[in-house]
Amino acid sequence: MKILDACCGSRMFWYEKNEPHTTYMDIRKEILTCKDRNLERKIKISPDVVADFRDMPFADATFDLVVFDPPHLIRAGKTSWLAQKYGTLDSMSWQNDLYKGFWECQRMLKDNGILLFKWNEEQIPFRDVIKAIQCQPILGDKKSKTRWSVFIKWKK
Question: Smallest Cα–Cα separation from 26: which of 87, 110, 72?
Answer without folding.
Answer: 87
